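Hey team,

Filing this mostly as a record. A colleague (T.K.) asked me to run one chain through the structure pipeline before their review meeting, and I want the input and output archived in the tracker in case anyone asks later how it was produced. No errors, nothing strange. Just documentation.

Input sequence:
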Amino acid sequence: MPFVHYHVSNNGLAKACCVANITYGNTNNETLDEIWNGEKINQLRTKFSKNETDERCFVCHKIEASGGKSIRLETFDKFDYHTLEEKPQLPIYFDIRFSNVCNFRCRTCWHGASSKWFNDAKLLNTNVGKKAIIKNIDDLDRFIDTSSEALKNAEEFYFAGGEPLVTEEHYQLLEWLVENKATRARLRYNTNFSKLAFKEYDLIDLWSQFDEVELLASIDASNSLGEYIRKDMDWQEILENRKVISRHPFIKFKIAPTVSILNVLQIPDLYEECLQLKMIEPNDLYINILERPSYFNIQILPKELKLKVVDRYLSHMTESNPKQINQAFQSILDYMMEEDRSELYGLFLEKNAELDELRGEENPLVGLF
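Output structure:
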């Protein structure tokens, strides 16, 4: 990925990706050119060119070892013809996290990725700093000016959060791309899909000027369980928003659940429900397997509960499913069974109960496992 990918993370850090803790520099005091041609990124390129691994990439390697498809492999599938360049001139794939601005308090999230988490985090003593909003790019105009050539020639922009659809800088960048006739790029989003309107911006009109738009809706479950996991979500609002974009067929839509201990048992049911509601086509499922926080990781389930999950999945992995869907289900099972980390199951019960008490909620999973 250091051959094609430019990721802006917390506090403006330019990192290898949104998962690995590999930092190249800081976009707030260095230009894209300085970072992209710097010593740290070139060291990683040299290592990868020799087919050497880096221990900081353990998340992708762990997913791949269990038969799953990691972000690394997905990126190489899309941009493989660039990976052979020893010294790529410019990045072509941008993943920009402008801030932690978000309107949800997802149970598996944290203050660093959600401003809405701030008050809960303060009570739990897990807040990052003294303010709810953490800006990653201090000066957007400077960032665009010093990155303009790469931005104009990019092949893909991936927006995540926080929540990109309530982040003003995201709209400002789209407007800049439109003004500069740089609209051939693919736009991809990881979004909670709760808002399709923001301030004075016409989102559908902006999207219509790009060649391709894909929404990966981070829906972990439907109805009350979904609203429990993704605090502040309204399931009916999600359904209404889906109807709105169905009138614009140029927008591709998939559900992209984050698979955790909270919803692993219900993923096949969610898929089938979304099919029945005509929210998705048969192949429109994108799986994210949660790695951290570790106490929400599906590998911590005790063996008897893992076997219950296996039984549920096998009953849904029928020949009528697309091959891709059965492979996605199998990748979840393979990852879950690869490692026994059940010593952390007690920590899950403790942490989840702590958040239940703080939010005045009852765990809807009681009795399901």
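Quick notes for T.K.: Residues 119 and 132 are 8 Å apart (CA to CA). The first strand starts at residue 5 and ends at 8.
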